């Protein structure tokens, strides 16, 4: 749901990762802490704890989206720079969380990275791609179909 909402808003407003004066430090701090904890858990072969750190990023971004209400920000032209910084930062957090989840969901994670325009990063070491701030402004993004469609009772 986070990926769908974020890419939908980003695509609707820009069609690409928006240019900003800077990414949000609060998101950077959340992601950097989770990445460090992920690596520590992986080094200790605590795979469940490592994966939980990736989920922590997603949960924090979901909470931030609910709190900041970017759909309301989009209605106010004066909030354009703030909206751009929020969505670019959340896209960056999604990119990193996706890399951390890749070992357990390679197909879905590969699709998220493709939609973010950075699927080529899978060829690089995890420690290199999980540095915050690598998603470039102007990179085309794609909303796509839901990654996890709702199940309906038959």
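^ Assign residues to that structure.
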């Amino acid at each position: 749901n986070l990926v769908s909402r974020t890419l939908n808003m980003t695509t609707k407003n820009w069609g690409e990762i928006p240019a900003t004066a800077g990414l949000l430090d609060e998101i950077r701090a959340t992601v950097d802490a989770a990445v460090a904890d992920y690596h520590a858990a992986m080094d200790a072969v605590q795979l469940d704890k490592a994966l939980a750190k990736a989920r922590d990023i997603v949960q924090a971004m979901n909470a931030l989206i609910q709190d900041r209400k970017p759909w309301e920000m989009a209605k106010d032209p004066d909030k354009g720079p703030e909206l751009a910084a929020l969505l670019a930062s959340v896209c960056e957090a999604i990119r990193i969380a996706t890399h951390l989840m890749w070992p357990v969901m390679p197909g879905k994670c590969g699709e998220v990275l493709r939609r973010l325009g950075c699927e080529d990063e899978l060829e690089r070491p995890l420690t290199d791609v999980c540095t915050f701030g690598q998603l470039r402004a102007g990179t085309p993004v794609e909303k796509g179909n839901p990654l996890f469609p709702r199940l309906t009772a038959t």
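The chain has a mean pLDDT of 94.
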